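Give me the 3D structure for Cupin domain-containing protein.
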Amino acid sequence: MTPQELDARIVRYGDLVPCKTAFIDAHTPGSDQKENFTIIGGGVSESPDQHVHIKDTPGFNIGAAGQPPKCRNSLHSHRTAEVFFVLRGRWRFFWGRWGTAGEVVLEEGDIFNIPTGIFRGFENIGTDYGMIMAILGGDDAGGGVIWAPQVIEDARDHGLVLAETGKLYDTRKGQSLPEGVSPMPLLTEEELTAFAEPSAAEVVPDFVARYWDLMAVAADAPARVIGPDALLTDRPGFEVDFITRGSIGEDAYTTDRHEVLMPVRGYWRLDVDGTRTVLNPGDTCAVPPGARRSLAPAMTGEASLYRVRNTDDPAGPTRAH
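Predicted structure for Cupin domain-containing protein (321 residues):
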């Protein structure tokens, strides 16, 4: 692999291109300052302005959300897995029809495998700009976002209308729905009953892993975070491992799976088919199947990263609520 080919498979944190009009709540007060990033795959953005860094998907999508303090992402659901880990800041995740069924606060490095079939939202409760990285199941990320009815109604009051096609129209800019296209219908009360309302006691133990717990577990070998035999048992169409300085050697290896590397702390030296680079926190690297690679911390000090690989499992909602 040439240096140019490897560079094309890396999205650097400093090169991320934000979209401020990605979703229906882009004008809603309290949510109008968030930035959405589509890193690998098309994601679930509803805006044609969304920049996609790497279009080819490995069986899942990678994205990110950046938000200033007190900025909130509105209640929504997905048909496939949605996994977040905190890169920067302190975040509160909440869920349920009105966001009151349960909540959990995540610190830097913590990971949350959000149960499918629930409405969820999140907000930056830190004191500075924060960033969370996301893994979405499936090549098409489940076909889009399912919004809680009040989110669609609030957005309409602030000039944004979501069409049944999943495309946004901004009435403040004079846009209107094309002839023959209807607004996205609100979920009925009967349909809403299908969305679970689990408590924090039901969710947190089985769906959240804490960074410092993972650092301890991965002291000598990579920690299995998400997978059929992992700390957070699941089969979402991908698996997630957590790697530290002491849990991986410098020996080269290959795999027949797509592998995405996402550093959390420290700097990581990566060699792929004879080409060397360094990955920094917030970078995302997609290593193709069959490539010979080695991975090791490039400097002394704390070092950790999440490694995501595709599996043969379907990307649908495989978890029990």
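The helical segments are 3-7, 149-157, 189-192, 200-207, 211-217. Let me know if you want a second pass.
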